[in-house]
Design brief:
The chain has 329 residues and is α/β, with parallel strands linked by helices. It contains 13 helices and nine strands.
Length: 329
């Protein structure tokens, strides 16, 4: 299909704040392939807005007096595009720290045209600088999801507008995990999600510090707790197992071991169960080579910051405190 025909059917919504050159690269990667591109800015203090306008991209600046969520930014961008271009069929959502690969839009568009039962298609997201840190490498491993039908997608995906409208888009109240939550609702309506074997985006995590990994993993725990509170009673038991693992490995076991250690210092040896778990998880991913133990350690020891996120969610819920977004960069 020609670029002209694709441009009549596909629009893009990019969200970001203070992404600088990352945003410029993102926008340039899109305008090469489609004409309808909207950047949704959430209070940037750099030249993001000016840069987008200089590239001929439509800009929507969010009212930051209203609590911000990425879900709200995506919804507002999508609403503006659908109002301006009622003949659009698909929206490519992209985070402002990602470049879209040149073949992606056409490949994704063709897939959704040929498979009308699918609401969303996503591809391979890669880290731009995986060698910069082990944390970037961990992100690159995380992005390498299985090819085929999927339960969810991430922030980069091509979405069928018909299905997006059917579920009223993203849940704007969610500060994390809004993409899989919307995918859950789509699947409940009979729609499917597909991960295809096509390069989709280059992502720049810019994550070089342990503190960044810790905050990002807290957000993961918060998302699991929040998601299960909404849909945990469903037949799928959405995120219930994830929460159970956090509670066991991130809360119950360390508390029990600490308690036993107070009674008998030899009990501290029980902490070796975590190292045994790391080895068990690592041997399941031989393809990761030397990274398999680092990846396994992030999975197992990540239960501690995830537990922080779970506790944070429950405190907010108990005190009826509005959650603030958890950012790592």
């Amino acid at each position: 299909m020609s670029k002209k025909l694709i441009s009549q059917k596909v629009g893009a919504v990019i969200i970001g704040r203070n992404e600088g050159l990352r945003l410029v690269r993102c926008l340039e990667s899109l305008i090469k392939n489609i004409d309808i591109v909207m950047y949704v800015d959430s209070g940037s203090t750099d030249k993001s807005v000016d840069s987008a306008k200089s590239l001929g991209v439509q800009v929507l600046s969010l009212d930051m007096s209203i609590p911000f969520t990425a879900a709200r930014a995506r919804n507002e961008g999508a609403t503006h595009l659908m109002q301006q271009y009622p003949d659009l069929e698909f929206i490519q959502f992209v985070d402002g720290d990602c470049d879209v690969q040149s073949q992606w839009i056409e490949s994704a568009n063709n897939f959704l045209n040929e498979n009308t039962e699918y609401a969303i298609v996503c591809g391979r997201r890669r880290e731009r600088f995986p060698e910069a840190s082990i944390y970037n490498q961990l992100c690159d491993i995380e992005w390498n999801t299985p090819i085929g039908d999927a339960l969810a997608c991430g922030g980069d995906a091509l979405i069928r507008i018909e299905s997006f409208r059917e579920v009223d888009g993203y849940n704007e109240e969610l500060i994390a995990g809004e993409e899989p939550e919307m995918c859950f609702r789509l699947r409940q309506q009979g729609w499917k999600i597909r991960r295809i074997d096509v390069e989709m985006t280059l992502h720049d995590a810019a994550m070089t510090k342990l503190s960044q990994w810790w905050k990002r993993t807290i957000r993961t725990g918060y998302a699991f707790a929040l998601g299960s509170s909404i849909h945990g009673k469903s037949k799928e038991r959405y995120y219930v197992k994830e929460n159970q693992r956090i509670i066991i490995w991130g809360l119950v076991m360390p508390i029990v071991i600490f308690g036993l250690t107070i009674l008998n210092p030899i009990s501290a040896a029980l902490f070796f169960v975590y190292w045994a778990q790391i080895v068990r998880v690592a041997v399941k991913r031989p393809s990761l080579g030397k990274m398999k133990f680092i990846w396994a350690a992030s999975v197992v020891l990540g239960k501690f910051p995830e537990a922080v996120g779970l506790i944070q969610y429950n405190i907010n819920k108990a005190t009826k405190t509005r959650a603030q977004i958890i950012e790592y960069k």
